[in-house]
Amino acid sequence: MEPPTNPDTALAKGKPNARFMLSHPAHFIALGFGSGLSPIAPGTAGTLWAWLAYLVLQGWLTAAQMGWLIGLSTLVGWWACTVTAKHMRVADPGSIVWDEVVAFWLVLWLIMPTGFYGQLAAFVLFRFFDAVKPGPVAWADQNFKGFNARGGFGILFDDIVAAFCTLLVIAIWTFW
Predict the structure, then answer these.
(1) How far apart are CA 70 and CA 32, in angstroms?
(2) Dihedral through CA 53, CA 37, CA 79, CA 3, nearest 10?
């Protein structure tokens, strides 16, 4: 099925802008509340936003509530990423950063409590696995593409795999 075209949300040079982001709730979510509009390294900007948001949220939510938020954010993000990728006509646009947000929240949720340097190490490892896409991350990235729910899931899935690779390295380091 051909992705819909909406002239009111036309993308300049294939890059979304604030008008596009605000034109649909899915765009606002998928673009990480604006962090995905960063002209430089939107995935890193989205991960930094996720880190800051997590630190703020943990002051208000219990660990269990944070877990529920991550689960709900994954489901809502699946919808938002699917819709936004369709509207952008790109299977996995770099400006969609909700996948980084949810995946890094998962990492932080599972390593907390830890200090700044532990969080920084998790950030660096996660960005490495997400950007370089070694082994299982590349497999996840390549096998779920498209403009349907499978494609929306794929946008999230490779980052979730990157999160688990990050957690595996942290676990090995911790218990070595």
Answers:
(1) 14
(2) 180
Residue identified by tokens 């630190």 is: 55
> Which amino acid, one-letter code, is at 36?
G
Q: What is the pLDDT of residue 148?
A: 83
Please name every residue paired with 12 in a beta bridge, in sequence order, or none if there are none: 15
**How many other CB atoms sit within 10 Å of the CB of residue 5?**
9
CA distance 128 to 134: 9
Q: What is the largest CA-CA distance in the chain?
A: 56
Question: Quick one: DSSP state of residue 89?
Answer: T
Contact predicate 21/28, CB 8 Å:
yes
| Rounded alpha-carbon distances, angstroms, from residue 125 to 107, 119, 132 | 10, 10, 10
DSSP 23: T
Give residue-wise pLDDT tens across range 34-87: 999 999 999 999 999 999 999 999 999 999 999 999 999 999 999 999 999 999
Is pTM beyond 0.70? Reply is yes
pLDDT for 76 equals: 98
**Residue among 111, 86, 115, 96 nearest 47 (CA):** 96
Q: Hey, which residues does 15 pair with through a beta bridge?
A: 12
As a whole number of angstroms, the distance between CA 144 and CA 93 comes to: 14
